[in-house]
Each structure stands twice: as structure tokens, then as C-alpha cells.
Amino acid sequence: MNLFDLTGKVAIVTGSSRGIGRAIAEALADHGAKVVISSRKAPACQEVADAINARHAGAAIVVPASISSKEELQNLVDETRRQLGRIDILVCNAASNPYFGPMAGISDEQFRKILDNNVIANHWLVQLAAPDMVERGSGSIIIVSSVGGLTSSTVIGAYNISKAADLQLVRNLAAEFGPQGVRVNAIAPGLVRTDFARALWENPDILKRVTSVAALKRIGEPRELAGAAIFLASDAASFVTGTTLTVDGGYTAR
To answer: Is 35 helix (H, G, I), strand (E, B) or coil?
Structure first.
């Protein structure tokens, strides 16, 4: 028995046109799942789906959606069920961070956008997708948080607040859905070389500060988050729920 085999499973991955989301979607397909590639821009999603389908024919479909729109998230769930019949795995990876700087300088609009897209949107999508899992008595929900939710920052404080809220969202949802056999967990990446985090790793001072204290003395690559998602999505994690898997090269171990 292969504990990591996802054959026959259907997974939605938000923010999967690039970075960590793309790496997770590709790995899910490599392990047998059918994946729904979703982000705001359809052409970028199609590029990823085409690459996956070139390796695994028919393994990926595209359903664009903005996480800021409840209606578009409803369509994402409805189209997944219509085209693929079910939802077994939900990876809430998409997030926003429109502000870089101290909390004193953030506008109300920017703060609300961070909380809406990084917390409320995850709540929406889980509520829309979970009934399918509850009905069958199985499923895996993964929220991509951040080590920022476990520590502080003088430049992405609001983002960190939203990611800390995601960690509590995971604990609460795990308690609610556990009796129905649905598992809910979080992944907390450290600094990873993505376009989303470019403002951090392209800053020499921040890069030096992070890598100097991390046990591995470097930042991560998107593909290095994929294994954590495969574990949490698979039978290998059948007794794991309500927890946070930190993947940060030893940054928080300092």
C-alpha cells in the first residue's frame, strides 16, 4: 500500500498559477490526483494545466476565481463538482499582501483587504467545499499559512496577523469537522523564493537576517513545500488534524 497515493482524488488548489500553489498542484497530479488550477487570470492557469496534462493526460482543469469574490468561489466549487464529480482535497493557498511597512502606516482599506482575502475568503471556500466531504465522511483541507503567523515583523505585520488567524481557523475547523472524518491542517512556510515574497528575499538585509538564523542557512524553493501538502492530503496523515506543519528550513527553531 502506498500511503501517498492520491489516485481517484480531486483537489482544488487556489493561487496555483505560480509559486507554492503551482508546486503543490503539480505534486498532487504526480501522485495521482485530478487537480483544479485556479487563480484570477485564466491564461496563467491554462499554462499550468497544459504542463500538467502533458505529463498526466486529463489530470488538470482550469476554473479561474478571485478569492475576493464569494460568487466566483461558489462557481469554483460548482464547476469542480460538475466536471470532476467531487472534492476530496482543498488547498487554500491564495493570499494578498498589498502593504509593506510598519503597522502605523497601513490604511484601513489595505488592512481590510488582507483580512478579507487571507482569512474570510478561506472561511468562505471551506464552507462551500466541506459539505461534499462531510457527506462522504472523508476529506482533507489544507490552509497555507506562514511562519509569520508564529512570529513578528516590522514590515508585514498585518499579513502576519492574518496568517495567525488562519492557524486558529484550522484548529476550530478541525474540531468541527473531525467527527465527520474531515481533516483540517495548515502549512506554515518560511521565506520561499516566490514572486509573492519578492519584496522580502530581494532585500539584502532581510535575506541575510532570515538565512543567518535558519538552520539550513538558506531560503526555500516552491517545490520544497509540495511534500508537506502531499503528506497532509494523503492517507499518510490519516490521524493528523488541527495542526500546523512548519516548513521553514529551521527558521523558527532558532
So the answer is: strand
β-bridge pairing 34-38 and 60-62: parallel
Helices (H), the chain: 19-30, 42-55, 70-84, 108-115, 121-136, 157-177, 198-201, 204-213, 223-233
8-45: pLDDT as tens digits: 999 999 999 999 999 999 999 999 999 999 999 999 99
Q: Residue 16: which of 4, 26, 29, 8 has the closest Cα?
A: 26
Can you say how many angstroms the Cα of residue 127 is from the centroid of all Cα atoms in its chain?
16
| Each residue's pLDDT tens digit, 57-115 | 999 999 999 999 999 999 999 999 999 999 999 999 999 999 999 999 999 999 999 99
Distance CA 84, CA 16 (A): 18
Q: Evaluate if residue 195 carries a pLDDT over 90.
A: no
For the chain, state the CA radius of gyration.
Answer: 17
- Taking the complete model, does pTM exceed 0.70, yes or no? yes
CATH architecture for segment(s) 10-249: 3-Layer(aba) Sandwich (3.40)
Domain parsing of the chain, residue ranges:
10-249
- Distance from the first to the final alpha carbon of the chain: 37
Amino acid at 157: G
The pLDDT score that the predictor gives to residue 150 is 96
Task: Give the three-class secondary structure for 157.
Answer: helix
User: Are residues 157 and 114 in contact, defined by beta-carbon separation less than 8 angstroms?
Assistant: no
Q: Which of 99, 124, 159, 177 is catalytic?
A: 159
Residue 99 catalytic?
no
